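Example for tutorial group B:
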């Protein structure tokens, strides 16, 4: 039994035997205080025999913590959808999805407007039963919403392209309900727009609140055998497209991030834990909070289990920017989703330098490799170096 587990079980249960602050510092006390501890536990194991424990200064948290200079939007600027029924939160008339079209100029977004297998299945079902799917009925649109004009007017239109477009990111029914759609998973860098607390749709019924409902997967933090430190395993099989958890941490200003980089003895190591919230950064934005430089999330000292997820050049997870209230785009979430089916007990990984061409090119440059960190991901597609 390691020293942390021993202290937790033999000292912290008794006020006489635990010193002030000991419980606050104990990682087992921290994860056992999570709201979901009983149903979706996080476990920490080290079977390597090296005696290592998690960094003592590290604190587990279930949500990001906004530090000095970082504020969410004031109530008078909050914005939610007015959908009358939950089904509507999938289609172009839902206010939360207003920005989906054209929010990202990559060609994949065009593809995301195309009907996927699920749309076609629904159309086939409707054709066979002579019924109109509910979304084929004209709905009242909100003023100013990007509402698709081409809605079947009479009878049932079997041409999938000439109907109201499904704009949200998830499958809504069948075996794939709640999973990210293929158009998002196939290399899309588009953000995910979800309904949230400020919407009229219900928290439990709306199909567009997957990240908002939080982690649904028990995870294990384990000590790796191959010098990568700690890593994370899923304790349940995951399907391609399934939400795992968010990358939480301290949300700090760009100045504070720079100060922390400067303070860290090895700036590149610090960068491993810092993620810029730059998905909506636009120097021409009318919103000063989006003109940049962006806020950053630091998971080094305060975070959830995802902070221990290692890098792979052939990963099984990918990070998506997720926004609920559109007034809070500057503090958007970093949501991790499975990009392939993953077995119970498999290690979870994501690509730390996903899409950052400069770092990917450096890894191929022999002169720069001398200074770079060797990648130990072991995949066939390994680039050899992390950064
Ligand atoms: C965000 S942390 C991940 C958790 C880390 N393994 C730990 O024990 O705290 C990133 C650090 O993990 C290690 N790491 C992650 N993936 C790696 C990989 N593929 N090859 C080598 N080291 C890796 C590196 O030391 C890196 O700086």
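The residue assignment follows.
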């Amino acid at each position: 039994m390691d020293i942390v587990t021993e202290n937790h079980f033999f000292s912290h249960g008794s006020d006489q035997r635990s010193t002030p602050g000991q419980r606050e510092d104990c990682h087992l006390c921290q994860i056992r205080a999570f709201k979901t501890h009983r149903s979706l536990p996080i476990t920490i194991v080290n079977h390597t025999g090296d005696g290592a424990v998690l960094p003592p200064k590290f604190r587990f948290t279930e949500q990001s913590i906004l530090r000095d200079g970082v504020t969410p939007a004031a109530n008078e600027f909050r914005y939610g959808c007015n959908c009358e029924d939950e089904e509507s939160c999938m289609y172009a008339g839902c206010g939360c999805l207003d920005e989906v079209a054209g929010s990202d100029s990559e060609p994949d977004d065009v593809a995301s407007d195309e009907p996927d297998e699920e749309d076609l299945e629904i159309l086939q079902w409707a054709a066979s039963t002579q019924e109109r799917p509910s979304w084929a009925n004209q709905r009242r649109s909100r003023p100013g919403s990007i509402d698709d004009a081409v809605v079947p007017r009479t009878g049932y239109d079997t041409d999938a392209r000439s109907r109201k477009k499904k704009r949200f990111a998830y499958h809504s029914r069948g075996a794939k309900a709640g999973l990210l759609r293929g158009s998002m998973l196939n290399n899309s860098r588009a953000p995910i727009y979800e309904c949230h607390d400020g919407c009229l749709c219900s928290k439990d019924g709306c199909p567009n609140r997957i990240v908002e409902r939080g982690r649904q997967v028990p995870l294990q933090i384990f000590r790796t055998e191959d010098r990568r430190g700690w890593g994370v395993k899923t304790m349940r099989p995951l399907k391609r497209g399934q939400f795992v958890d968010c990358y939480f941490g301290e949300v700090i200003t760009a100045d504070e991030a720079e100060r922390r980089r400067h303070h860290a003895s090895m700036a590149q190591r610090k960068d491993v834990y810092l993620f810029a919230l730059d998905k909506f950064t636009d120097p021409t934005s009318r919103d000063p909070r989006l003109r940049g430089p962006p806020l950053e999330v630091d998971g080094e000292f305060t975070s959830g289990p995802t902070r221990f997820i290692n890098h792979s050049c052939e990963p099984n997870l990918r990070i998506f920017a997720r926004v609920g209230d559109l007034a809070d785009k500057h503090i958007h979430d970093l949501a991790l989703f499975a990009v392939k089916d993953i077995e119970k007990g498999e290690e979870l990984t994501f690509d730390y330098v996903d899409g950052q061409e400069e770092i990917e090119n450096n890894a191929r440059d022999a002169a720069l490799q001398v200074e770079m960190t060797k990648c130990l991901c072991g995949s066939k597609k390994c680039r050899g170096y992390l950064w």
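The longest helix spans residues 117-129. Compare this with the pattern of hydrophobic and polar residues in the output above.
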